[in-house]
Amino acid sequence: MANKIVIALDVMSGEAGAEAALEGANISLGKNPNLYFKLYGDEVVIGQYLANLPKLKQQSSIHHTDFIVSMTMKPSQALRKGRKVSSMWQAIASVRDGEAGGALSAGNTGALMAMASICLRTLRRIDRTAIAAIWPTLKGRTIVLDMGANLHVSAQNLVEFGFMGAAMARIIFKTKTPKVGILNIGEEEMKGNEDLKEAASVLRDSGMPLDYIGFVEGDGISKGLADVVVTEGFAGNIALKTAEGTARQMGTLLRDAFKSSWLSRLGYLLVAPSLKILRKNLDPNNSNGGVFLGLKGIVIKCHGSSDSLGFAHAIDLTASMIKNDLVNEIRNDLNVYYKDHDVIEDQKATVTKKVPAMNNKEV
Amino acid sequence: MANKIVIALDVMSGEAGAEAALEGANISLGKNPNLYFKLYGDEVVIGQYLANLPKLKQQSSIHHTDFIVSMTMKPSQALRKGRKVSSMWQAIASVRDGEAGGALSAGNTGALMAMASICLRTLRRIDRTAIAAIWPTLKGRTIVLDMGANLHVSAQNLVEFGFMGAAMARIIFKTKTPKVGILNIGEEEMKGNEDLKEAASVLRDSGMPLDYIGFVEGDGISKGLADVVVTEGFAGNIALKTAEGTARQMGTLLRDAFKSSWLSRLGYLLVAPSLKILRKNLDPNNSNGGVFLGLKGIVIKCHGSSDSLGFAHAIDLTASMIKNDLVNEIRNDLNVYYKDHDVIEDQKATVTKKVPAMNNKEV
Fold it and tell me: What is the DSSP-derived secondary structure letter of residue A152?
């Protein structure tokens, strides 16, 4: 499989079932014949769908598992019952074992993060892993992290999120020094708590390949002020879901308006072709994929209710992260930074870990 | 001035200046002849505008002040320079002195909250004041608090926010037991930190006139799941501004789509009348007004950039809060609750106050 990009696909764990995952893989394969899929799940179910997807059948292998992590399981339960035996674990383990370049799942986010952290482990000097989302904005797209992996973080965690987000931005946006901002309740330097101010001062003077632009408010994300916006997971998750809710609210009101009279129905027919851009900008499929950052391997979370197009987009994203070697991009940054910042490294050693204890002996 | 609703209007502090404030007052007066305004600011400027607004001139008095709190002043600066002498302080002081039923300002939020807290003081047993916003949703409107007055709060603070929000909801939505939810990163009871879980359990069993419905996610606000959504100020502020940003982003994309071809321009003409509902739902003027809760008087914050219609809406809201005696509604709830919950009151005494020390001898 020379030059192949191998993706471990957890076929069964999403709400939409195996069909959306497999058809999504088939769509991506149509665009990128270098893909190869390791498919984890029930072999009978997968086999049935593959019978109708001959191209994918040729570019994939089936890896049977009996156990599927449900969407309602607590991470601890998922680990107890699904470690080693679940499609989710095995997809991640194939990344650890070098059999796949990255893993993709639409399953239970908490379980996926727990399994990924334990199976792949975090990169040396990374205290907290983060989930990065790609957000459609007026100027293009912005990476926002963390989306809920960590409810409370330190200044140092935020700094690391900035480095990791910038590494991802360099790959996705093809820019050498991505603009990085910190989410806050005001743009003025005096706003927010001490952790935010400390993280701001470290990022400003880090000397790393990023352009720290200061604090960004909630509406600064959609304005596209930054390539990367850093925040702790509670506010990040609330912001993401609030934006999704607001977009859905407007979409509903808009549809109601178009349907409200014969004149507006006629008007809609004339306007419809131009609305494509709006629809494309707001289609969650086009920004589908939460990238787990800080692990010794690539793991991507697809929206739980993704359809085949949503899966295809998340697969394209996974392929791009594998091809551009996201993990080494981050690892190299951390090596450069911490060689020059031994003092901060000493401080970091005193941080109390709340994540499961991990053995970070080797990078 | 029997039966008059007297509003102390800080005319000068907003970004749009005196004109928007005074024209807004004139619009509200047209709808509600019971209003009377005490106008605080530069008497020459105010006098010039009033010359063209004879009705308002008749139903108002001018109170000259030399000092205007600027939008960029820190709260501490505003207090040092503007205490007693600013239009903002004097408007609030007239509420304290019983000369007005409530104060309204479009000025610097931090300064307004600091002045209101010191001038009016907090209600007995209230540890933290909060800013409540009224949010347009698919089902109507939802009150969300806190919008940024407090970055970190305790479980007990969240419970008090729930009580205060419910009191405000009973007035605005004319419902006896408003639905109250707590903003969280998931609806499941196990989600979020310990403070959220503790606040949830207290609100569920409080026996107060509210219907606790559980945790609400970011997109649950726009779905209209609750009448009141409670959160700490950081996430609340981020959520509000993210929603505003997303609405603006969609509005911009929509306008671009309508303008993109002759066909779509024609279509827009046919659709335009039906778009009124959408525009009304999303017009920030229609949800203008941050209500300060927990003080011994009514203070409302108008958007800094409000136009006359925005002011008119905030004035209507202020009048409604005065007429329905918001402060006593909250005070009565607290009296009922704390009489039955002396244990919690004892615990509360140990909370370290981070707000300026206040003298809460009398309710």
Answer: S
